[in-house]
Amino acid sequence: MSASTGWRLPETDAGWVTDGGLETDLIFHRGLDLPDFAAFPLLDADDGRAVLADYYLAYADVAARAGAGLLLETPTWRANADWGARLGYDAHGLARINRDAVAFLRDLADGSGVRDTLVVGALGPRGDGYLAGDLDADRYAGYHRPQLAAFADAGADLATAYTLTTVAEATGIVRAAQDVGLPVAISFTVETDGRLPDGTALGASVESLDTATGSGAAHLLVNCAHPDHVTPGLDPSAPWSARISGLRVNSSRLTHAELDEAEELDEGDLAELASGTRALADALPGVRILGGCCGTDARHVAAIWDGWSPVAGAGHK
């Protein structure tokens, strides 16, 4: 189904659970070495697949307990041309690993025990997730199209692009997804002031993206920021805020620059993070997806979902 046909996330009784900080969990809790912060090479080894399966099934348990749907998102945030080349993957190898990631999660979905499960092809920015890139949307479309095509070929239900720092890259990704006929969601990251790393206000970014793509993104999210950093960028009364369907929050209040330099994991205050995330979600009328990002694991996501649903949230009444 083409993203331009108006695909929207299906309704469930209690929203959609997604996972947490995959890479930080694998590095700090499971002792794995992830060069260039890339998890996708784990798919090429049986023991790596076993670790990934254990990781994802913990979130299936969260979804089952919450009575929610489950978004299983591929470990392919770094599986694009520039990062792949650094890790020894050429274009053929990347196409294979992106298809394999979808097939791997499809098998997990079938045995997850969660009725409503979607397999999501996850992609990240071309460059650093914390630095603004260039402003050539067409170049970004060409760059990201092969990964999106691999997801589509493998039968992913949709794709989501995470930690985007510019409207230009988001626009290119939406156009590329439309080219290959795959619904796509866009997730921006923000700094401590609620603005994108290039200084653009979150609301202006949402509006610019929708204008440039004809509202071609299936839905929008914000990720890789603490709830206290997202809040300054929000205006729940503005029409654009209804486009935000998901939040994937950091456990830490550290800035992106500080996180880059951190040698120890800041897991934050679990109860405080959960309450802050729920309050943020309740203020936004469209939020149906909750999960974590850097520093979070299944404990954080379980705490966020403890007693929360879109139906119960104040912003959804």
UniProtKB/TrEMBL annotation:
Q: Which residues form the Hcy-binding domain?
A: 4-308
Q: Which UniProt keywords apply?
A: Metal-binding, Methyltransferase, Transferase, Zinc
Which InterPro entries does the entry mention?
Answer: HCY_dom, HCY_dom_sf
Query: Which Pfam families does the entry mention?
Result: S-methyl_trans
Molecular function (Gene Ontology), one example: methyltransferase activity
Where does the chain bind Zn(2+)?
Answer: 224, 293-294
What cofactor does this chain's UniProt record say it requires? Answer: Zn(2+)
Please, which domain of life does this record's source organism belong to? Bacteria
Any Gene Ontology biological process: methylation
Instruction: Check the UniProt entry and state the signal peptide residues, or none.
Output: none
Name of this chain's protein: Homocysteine S-methyltransferase
The species this protein belongs to is Nocardioides alpinus
User: What lineage, starting at the top, does this entry show?
Assistant: Bacteria, Bacillati, Actinomycetota, Actinomycetes, Propionibacteriales
